[in-house]
Design brief:
The chain is an alpha/beta fold. It is built from nine helices and six strands. It folds into two domains: 104 residues, no CATH class; 115 residues, Ribonuclease H-like superfamily/Ribonuclease H (Nucleotidyltransferase, domain 5, 2-Layer Sandwich).
Length: 262
C-alpha cells in the first residue's frame, strides 16, 4: 500500500485523479482520500512535495497515458508498432524490453484474444432481456443444434515428461458427422432428434412438430410450463409456415438477438 500511496502522490499535480485511478487500478475515492490526507497533513508544503526521484524515466506518466489510449483503441497492436507510435507521437525512443517492462508495471499483460462479434447489438440484447423477463423460467424451452464427429472427443492437452512432446495417434479424417437437436427446459429434455450431417429447414420443422405435444398454450395468469420456444435467429428456424402453425397452437416464439454471449 505504501508503494501505491507513493505513486499517487508522485502523479498528483501531473495528471488528474481520474487518470491516476485508471492507471494504477485504484478506486477514485481512495485516490482522493490519500491526496486529501496528505494535503491536510503537510498544508501548503504539499504543493512543493517532490514528485520524482532518481534517474528520470523515459516513459513519463503522460506517455503511459498515451500508450494506454492506443491499447484501448487497438488491443491487438504489436509491441514494435506500439514503440513506433510512442516515438512518432511523443518523441520518446525506448527499447522493446523497456517498453514491455513499463507496460507490465502498469498492469498490462498480453492475453489470449476473446473475439467479440461486431454484429452484437446491445440494444437488441436489452430488448430481448426485457421481453424474456415476462416469462417464468419454468415456461421457457430452449432449442439449439450441436454438430459432432469423432474428432470432438480429442482432448487439447495431454501429459508428458518435461522436454518431450505430448503425442497421441488420432484419426485425421473426421468420418461421419451427426447433429443433435434437443429441447431443454427446467423439467429436463422434452424431446431430442439426431440426424446425419446437418439440419435443414425440413428436418427442423419436423422436430418442432414432434415437440408441440409437449408444449402448452400461453396463459399470462397461470403461466404453465413449456409455453415459449426460444431459439437463435438461424435461417432454417424462420420458416413462415412453421411459425404460423406454432403461434396458432397458442405457443410463443422468441428469437435470440445476434451473437448473444449469455
Amino acid at each position: 500500500m505504501d508503494n501505491v500511496r507513493l505513486s499517487i502522490l508522485q502523479m498528483h499535480g501531473e495528471v488528474t485523479n481520474q487518470d491516476i485511478s485508471r492507471y494504477l487500478g485504484v478506486l477514485l475515492r481512495s485516490v482522493q482520500r490519500i491526496v486529501k490526507l496528505e494535503h491536510d497533513y503537510l498544508g501548503s508544503a504539499f504543493e512543493s512535495w517532490p514528485r520524482t526521484g532518481g534517474t528520470p524515466r523515459k516513459i513519463t506518466d503522460e506517455a503511459m497515458m498515451f500508450l494506454i489510449s492506443v491499447i484501448e483503441r487497438r488491443s491487438d497492436i504489436y509491441l514494435d508498432k506500439l514503440r513506433v507510435e510512442l516515438q512518432t507521437q511523443m518523441g520518446i525512443e525506448v527499447t522493446l524490453p523497456t517498453l514491455s517492462r513499463n507496460l507490465r508495471d502498469a498492469g498490462l499483460t498480453l492475453k489470449m484474444i476473446m473475439k467479440v462479434a461486431k454484429e452484437r447489438d446491445p440494444r437488441k440484447r436489452a430488448d430481448y432481456t426485457m421481453r424474456i423477463s415476462q416469462y417464468h423460467p419454468r415456461t421457457q424451452v430452449y432449442i439449439d443444434e450441436s454438430r459432432f464427429d469423432r474428432q470432438n472427443s480429442i482432448r487439447k492437452q495431454a501429459w508428458a515428461f518435461e522436454g518431450e512432446r505430448a503425442l497421441k495417434k488420432v484419426f485425421f479424417l473426421r468420418g461421419k458427422s451427426y447433429s443433435v437437436l434437443p429441447a431443454l427446459s427446467l423439467l429436463g429434455i422434452l424431446h431430442v432428434k439426431i440426424v446425419k450431417n446437418a439440419f435443414n429447414t425440413e428436418l427442423f420443422n419436423e422436430f418442432i412438430y414432434e415437440l408441440l405435444p409437449f408444449m402448452n398454450p400461453y396463459d399470462p395468469v397461470t403461466q404453465p410450463p413449456n409455453l415459449v420456444l426460444i431459439m437463435d435467429n438461424c435461417r432454417i428456424h424462420k420458416d413462415p409456415e412453421m411459425i404460423e402453425i406454432v403461434l396458432a397452437c397458442g405457443i410463443c416464439i422468441e428469437f435470440l438477438p445476434p451473437y448473444l454471449p449469455d
